[in-house]
Amino acid sequence: MLTLRGVTKRYPTGDRALTDIQLTLPKGQVMALIGPSGAGKSTLIRCVNRLVEPTQGSIRLEDTEITRLSGNALRQARRSMGMIFQEYALVDRLSVMENVLSGRLGYVGFWRSFLRRYPEDAVAEAFRLLERVGLPHAIDKRADALSGGQRQRVGIARALLQSPKLLLVDEPTASLDPKTSRQIMRLIRELCAERDLAAIINIHDVALAQQFADRIVGLRAGEIVFDGLPSELTSEILTTIYGEEDWDTTPEPMDDEPAAAPPYVPTLQGLAAGGAR
Amino acid sequence: MPVSLTPQGLPAWQRRTTRAQWLQYAAWLLGISLFLLCWKVISDNTMWVFVEDAGRQGSDLLSRMLPPRWEYANVLWKPMWDTLNIATLGTAIGIMMAFPVAFLAARNTTPHPLVRSAALMVIVSSRSINSLIWAMLLVTILGPGVLAGIIAIALRSIGFVGKLLYEAIEEIHPTPVEAISATGASRLQVMNYGVLPQIMPAFAGISVYRWDINIRESTVLGLVGAGGIGLQLNASINNLAWNQVSVIFIMIFATVLVSEWISARVRHAII
Amino acid sequence: MSAQAEALASARAQAARQGRWRRLPLIENPRWRWGIAIGGVVYLVLALASVEVNWARVAEGAGRALNFLGAFMQPDFISRQNDIVAGLLESLTMTLTSTVLGVLLAIPVGLGAARNISPLPLYLLCRAIIAVSRTFQEIIIAILFVVMFGFGPLAGMITLAFATIGFMAKLLAEDIEDLDWRQVEAVRATGASWWQTMNHAVQPQVMPRLIGLSVYRLDINFRESAVIGIVGAGGIGATLNTSLSRYEYDTSAAILLIIIAIVLLCEYSSSHVRRWTQ
C-alpha cells in the first residue's frame, strides 16, 4: 500500500539523514522502525507525510505519488495519514474535544473550524473514539489537565478521526512509564487490527517492538540494515543496528508487569543529526 | 594573572591584572570627560539668570497652584471621557493592526523573508516615534481633534504590541503546530489551532498593558491639539491658570492609578 | 465537582454522543457573559458617537498626507542642517547627562524604597517619589521645569533625570527585595560593616541588571528628548515642531528618519551591552 523507492534526505548543512530507502508496506501491517538516536527514524516517517521534504526518491500511497503533491492535494494526502507524536503534541490550551476534532481539519473549511461548527457525524465519531480510548468523561477538560498516558490517548483519537489508511507513530512511548507504554502500544495494535490500518512505529524499546510489531526494520545511519520478522532479531543483528553491546541482558518481554527500562541505546558519534527539527 | 609575586617573593593578590586596571581607569576617564563635555553644552545653552531664580519661581508656582480650583473639575468630565476613548479605541485599533503584522514578522509564521523585513520595518518605525510626535503629524494632516489622538495612539501601539507579540509567536512549541499540519489542515487552520491558543494569554496581557500605558499617553496628547484632557491643560497653562492646572494634575494622577490597578488585576487574572 | 456541574458534564457527553457539541463559553455565568458583551457594545457605540470628526478638514488633510509620504521618499537633510545638528546635539547631551544623573540619584532612592533594608518613613518617602515620577508623563514634568528653570536643555535634562529616578529606583528596589539573603548573611557573618555588606553582597547581585536597565533607559531618554522640546525644553523635538508648523515636511521627514536610525542604533548596542554584562 505504501511504497518508498530510493528515498534520500540531505539537510542543507550537508548531513545525510536518509540514503536510498526502499520499503514496501502492505495493508494492515504494523511495522516497527528501530535504530539508534540520529539514525533517521523520525526523518523517515516525516518524509512520508512531507513534514520533512525528501531530497530524492518516490513515495507512493496506493496510487498517489506523494512527493509531487502541493497545496490542496497535499492536504488531502495528509488526511489519509494519521500521525502520533512522542510529546503527544496536543494543543494544551484547547479542550480534549477540540484537540480530537482537529483531526478533521483537513475535511472542513476554515470558517467552520474557526467557529467550531463541526458536522454532526464528525462530533459523534470523535466522541465514539474518545470512548474507545477510555476518555469519554474528559471532553471538556483542557488538554494540559491530563496525565501523559491520557494525553497520548487523545493524540491517538485525533489521528484516527482523520479516518487514515496509514498511521505514522513517532516514539509513542518515549515520555511514558513502562506500564503505560505497554497499554498504549496494545491500544495502537488493537486499533490497527480493528480498522485494518497499516502503521510505521518508530520505537527505541526493542522489547516492545518485538512484542507488538508484525515486522521490524532496523535503521542505522540513514540506511536500512535489517528487515524481517520480530523473531529473526538476534544479538548479532542488534549489534549491526546499534553497535557493540551485551545484548543478552536485554530483558525478556513480560506481560503488563512494569517492564524493565528500555535497552541501552548507544548514540553513534558523528552521525547525521537525524531529528526532523 | 591576578596572583603575582611581590619583590619579597610572596604571592600577592590583586582583583585585576595591571593591564585591565589601566583599561578601567581609561574608560572611567573617557566617560567622565564625555559627561563634562555634555554638561558644558547644556550649560552654554542655559540662561543661568533664570536658573538662579528657580527656587523663587518654584515656590511662586506652588503658591499659585494651591489651593486647587475644585469647581473647575466639572468642566473636565467630557475631556476625561474623550481621553478614555482615545486610549481605548486607539488601543483597540492598534492591536487589530498589530496582530497580522506580528504574524508576518515572526520567523516561524512569516510567508517570506522579504515580508518579514517589511513587517519589522513597520514595527521599528512605529516604536521609535513617540505618540506625541505621531499626534503632531496627524494634527497637521487631519486637523485637531480626538480622531488624530486615536490614530496617534493606534500607530504607536502597533509597534509595541507587534514586537512583544511576534516574540511570543517565535517562542511557541513547534510540535503542536507540526501535529496540526499533519492532519491536513490549511495554513490558516494551522494558525488558528496550533499557534493562536499558545499566544492568547500573552496577547491579552500585552494588550491590557498597552492600554494602561495609552491612558497615560492620551492625557498629554491635547498639548499638541489631539483632543482629551491635554487640551484643557494647554489652555490653562496658556492662561497661567495654575490653580486649574493642579486640578487637572490630580485628575490625571487618579485616572492613571485606577487604570494601573485595573490592568494589574486583569493581567493577574489571565496569568 | 458539584452535582450541577456533573449534570452539565453528562448532558454535554450525551449531546456529543449524538453529534451535538459546542465549545464551552469562555465565561461560564451567562449573566456575566451577556453583561460584558452588551456593556462592550454600548461603550463602543457611545464612544464612537462622541468622536467628532470634521470630514471636510480630513479630506483637505488627505492631500497633505500624500505630501508627507512624498517627503519621506525625498527627505531634506540639507536646508535646515544647522538647526537639525544643534537640536540633535542638545538631545544627545541631554540624554547622556540625564541618564547618568538619574541613575546615580536612583540608587539611594531605590535602596530607600526596598522594604527589607530601609526604615518605614524613608520607605514611604521614596515610594512617593517613585509614584509621582512614574505617573506623570515626561512632558508634564517638563512644563513645570521649564517654568522654573527657563527654556532650554537644562529643564529638559532635569525632567529626564527625574523620570529616570522613578523608573530605575522602582526596578532597583524590586531587585533588592528579591535578593538572595543567604549571600548577604554570609558576608555579614564575617563581621562586615553596612557599607562592606552593600559592596560585597548586594552590589554583585544587582549590578548586571542595573547596567542593562541603564542602557535601556538611555534609549528611552533619547526618545523622550525628542518630545519634550515641544514645550520648550530643548532638543530635536523643538526643531521637529518648528518644521511641522512651517509645513516643511521634507525636513520633518529627515528628522524622523534620524530619530528612527538613532533608536535602532541604541537598541542594537544595548542588546550587546546586556549580553556582555550577563
Task: List its traits.
heterotrimer, A: 277 residues, Rossmann fold, 4-stranded antiparallel β-sheet, 21% strand, C: 278 residues, mainly alpha, MetI-like fold, 2 domains, membrane (chain C), MetI-like (chain C), MetI-like_sf (chain C)
Descriptive notes:
The complex is a heterotrimer of chains A (277), B (271) and C (278). Chain A has 277 residues and is of the alpha/beta class. Chain A has one domain (2-242): P-loop containing nucleotide triphosphate hydrolases (Rossmann fold). Chain A has helices spanning 41-48, 71-79, 96-101, 110-114, 120-132, 148-161, 178-195, 206-212, 235-242, and strands at 2-10, 16-25, 30-34, 56-61, 64-65, 81-84, 166-170, 198-202, 215-220, 223-228. In chain A, strand 7, helix 7 (178-195) and strand 8 (198-202) form a beta-alpha-beta unit. Residues 253-277 of chain A have low confidence and may be disordered. With 271 residues, chain B is mostly helical. Chain B has 2 domains: 3-49; 70-270, MetI-like fold. Chain B has a two-stranded antiparallel sheet with strand order 1-2. In chain B, helix 4 runs antiparallel to helix 9, helix 8 packs across helix 9 and helix 9 runs antiparallel to helix 11. In chain B, 42% of the residues are buried. Chain C has 278 residues and is mainly α. Chain C has 11 helices and no strands. Chain C is flat and about 80 Å long. The interface between A and C is medium-sized, with 18 and 12 residues.
Describe the SSE topology:
The complex is a heterotrimer of chains A (277), B (271) and C (278).
Chain A: E1 2-10, E2 16-25, E3 30-34, H1 41-48, E4 56-61, E5 64-65, H2 71-79, E6 81-84, H3 96-101, H4 110-114, H5 120-132, H6 148-161, E7 166-170, H7 178-195, E8 198-202, H8 206-212, E9 215-220, E10 223-228, H9 235-242
Parallel strand pairs in A: 3-8, 3-9, 6-7, 7-8
Antiparallel strand pairs in A: 1-2, 1-4, 4-5, 9-10
Helix pairs in contact in A: 5-6, 6-7
Chain B: E1 3-5, E2 11-13, H1 18-44, H2 48-52, H3 54-65, H4 77-105, H5 113-128, H6 131-142, H7 146-170, H8 174-182, H9 187-218, H10 229-238, H11 242-270
Antiparallel strand pairs in B: 1-2
Helix pairs in contact in B: 4-5, 4-7, 4-9, 4-10, 5-7, 6-7, 7-9, 8-9, 9-11, 10-11
Chain C: H1 3-17, H2 30-50, H3 55-73, H4 81-112, H5 120-135, H6 138-149, H7 153-177, H8 181-189, H9 194-228, H10 236-245, H11 249-277
Helix pairs in contact in C: 3-11, 4-7, 4-9, 4-10, 5-7, 6-7, 7-9, 8-9, 9-10, 9-11, 10-11
InterPro entries (chain A): AAA+_ATPase, ABC_transporter-like_ATP-bd, ABC_transporter-like_CS, ABC_transpr_PhnC, MetN_ABC_transporter-like, P-loop_NTPase
Keywords (chain A): ATP-binding, Cell membrane, Membrane, Nucleotide-binding, Translocase, Transport
Membrane topology (chain A): Peripheral membrane protein
